[in-house]
Amino acid sequence: MTSLLDPQARGRVILVGAGPGDPGLLTLRAVDALRQADIVVHDGLIDPRILDYAPPAAQRISVAKSRARHTLPQEAINALIIAHVRAGSIVVRLKGGDPFVFGRGGEEVEAVRAAGLRVDVVPGVSAALGCAAEAMLPLTHRDWSSAVSFVAGQCKGLSEQNWAGLAGHGRTLVIYMGVANAPAIADKLMADGVDPALPVAVLEKGTLPGQRALRTLLADLGEMVTRERVQSPAIIVVGEVVLLSDAESRLAGLARQAGALAQ
């Protein structure tokens, strides 16, 4: 395979994971890719300091997305990338976290390869790993959890999903993009048999200025998100490992009736 640093390898896209936010969590390989970019197509939450690794002459194109607004639909992003690659450019598609963990990286790779073009992938520190580390929250632990599951909290048909077995004793569940649906997520987990007294943590803006790590019980999750005015980006961690973290307790009086695990 041609090296990412090969100046002769023109007309290609490099999917780069930018990590959870802190520029210090970029990999050396990610920095190398950015330094050779002609065009950087980036997500909206990318720290400007990360974009500074690209050459000053490189074009920077934001394709910022939010829950209610997309600058470009995914199909248009794919077309944009393909057009620039066909013109001979080195396109760095810069994505938060890791491109293949809820980042639609798989869709973009599929589109570029279907067009007969070259694509490379540079993994990044995922939001789950980076934010959990900042909160001193081990996702696995020999005494507490031997399994981890990752789910998307804004998926359609949440009530029809079967989450039974994803959270409970000896297991950790990490929920991406779940803040807006936190009450429904808590109800869903409890309906699928998860103990209402299971500890949960909400990791808000992990690795970024203003980050917070908050802890309560599953039964109180939706109310806590509202009380604390939690904003995206944030992930939700469900499991006993939450008790090992530095997350601040935000247990409401009503939730204490569900159990005593959070103390």
Automatic annotation (TrEMBL):
<dbReference type="InterPro" id="IPR035996">
    <property type="entry name" value="4pyrrol_Methylase_sf"/>
</dbReference>
<dbReference type="GO" id="GO:0004851">
    <property type="term" value="F:uroporphyrin-III C-methyltransferase activity"/>
</dbReference>
<keyword id="KW-0489">Methyltransferase</keyword>
<comment type="pathway">
    <text>Porphyrin-containing compound metabolism; siroheme biosynthesis; precorrin-2 from uroporphyrinogen III: step 1/1.</text>
</comment>
<feature type="domain" description="Tetrapyrrole methylase">
    <location>
        <begin position="12"/>
        <end position="221"/>
    </location>
</feature>
<comment type="similarity">
    <text>Belongs to the precorrin methyltransferase family.</text>
</comment>
<dbReference type="Pfam" id="PF00590">
    <property type="entry name" value="TP_methylase"/>
</dbReference>
<keyword id="KW-0627">Porphyrin biosynthesis</keyword>
<dbReference type="InterPro" id="IPR050161">
    <property type="entry name" value="Siro_Cobalamin_biosynth"/>
</dbReference>
<dbReference type="InterPro" id="IPR003043">
    <property type="entry name" value="Uropor_MeTrfase_CS"/>
</dbReference>
<dbReference type="InterPro" id="IPR000878">
    <property type="entry name" value="4pyrrol_Mease"/>
</dbReference>
<keyword id="KW-0808">Transferase</keyword>
<dbReference type="InterPro" id="IPR006366">
    <property type="entry name" value="CobA/CysG_C"/>
</dbReference>
<dbReference type="GO" id="GO:0032259">
    <property type="term" value="P:methylation"/>
</dbReference>
<dbReference type="InterPro" id="IPR014777">
    <property type="entry name" value="4pyrrole_Mease_sub1"/>
</dbReference>
<protein>
    <recommendedName>
        <fullName>uroporphyrinogen-III C-methyltransferase</fullName>
        <ecNumber>2.1.1.107</ecNumber>
    </recommendedName>
</protein>
<dbReference type="InterPro" id="IPR014776">
    <property type="entry name" value="4pyrrole_Mease_sub2"/>
</dbReference>
<keyword id="KW-0949">S-adenosyl-L-methionine</keyword>
